[in-house]
Amino acid sequence: MNETITLLKSHRSIRKFKDVPLEEGHLHEILTAAQAASTSSNIQAYSAVIVRDKERKSRLGELAENQQQVEESPLFLIWLADLNKISKAIQLHESAELKQNTELFILATVDATLAAQNAAVAAESLGYGIVYIGGIRNRPQEVSDLLALPDLVYPVFGMCIGVPNQEPDIRPRLPFDAVFYEELYQSDKLSTYIQDYDEITSRYYATRKGGGKGGETNTRWSKEMLKRFNGERHREHMYDFLKRRGFDLT
Question: Any residues with CB less than 8 A from the CB of 182 and at least 6 apart, and which?
Fold first, then answer.
């Protein structure tokens, strides 16, 4: 065990922040740590928009389905998959459009995610709390208009950063053996592992401090997955949105 591993294993999503800004110089360190993340073939196909303005944060919170923590956090980052800069780089050498496919879209999305996670760990190492905001994709066109995003750029998720004003319990994860396999994927005991995890999550939510669903006794992970993915298709608008933004998903 070392300090880095201890930090990683103590991660909690923070949704309540103190009304204090980040210390001078800390944001630069967080973002340069983000730039040190792995990137496929050095394409660096991501960007981030830094939002401090209260009115803009308030609007982004509304677009993310009224998530109040967006407005209340001192700093909100919107992480972007960015093929625009790749297109611009190519055009420095010849007048040609960027040749796209689904793989390139995946590379940009993964690049943005790796950079963001580096930023999250860096922020937590400095004593800040973070929470990812996937709800930024609820109304992605309006987010894009608000941030003046060009074609070939889309918002992957947001990230609130600030000094924590709560101490939520650490959320338990799936059993180790339900996630990591030796040599080959193994399904034979997966249902049993999930049922075991259901009992763990039920106890967790019944006693949870500092977060939502505290005191609930009938919340289980598998039921949460059923509720989320077996009804209306989740953010089905994203395909058409991405096509309009110039992404080729063939």
Answer: none
What is the distance between the alpha carbons of residues 118 and 196, in angstroms, rounded to a whole number? 31
Does residue 164 sit in helix, strand or coil? strand
60 close to 146: Cβ distance less than 8 angstroms: yes
- In the numeric block, which tokens belong to residue 197? 């995890």
Please tell me whether the overall predicted TM-score, pTM, comes out greater than 0.90 for this model. Answer: yes
- How many Cα atoms within 13 Å fall on the side-chain side of residue 163? 7
Cα gap 59→22, rounded to integer Å: 21
Each residue's pLDDT tens digit, 146-169: 999 999 999 999 999 999 999 999
Q: How far apart are CA 127 and CA 155, in angstroms?
A: 26
Length of the chain equals 250
Residue 144, Cβ neighbours under 10 Å: how many?
Answer: 20
Task: Quote the DSSP letter at residue 149.
Answer: P
Angle at 133 between CA 71 and CA 243, to 5 degrees: 115
What does each C-alpha distance from 199 to 22, 213, 215, 222 come to in angstroms?
A: 39, 15, 14, 10
In which region does residue 41 sit, left (phi positive, over 0), alpha (psi from -120 to 50) or beta (all else)?
left
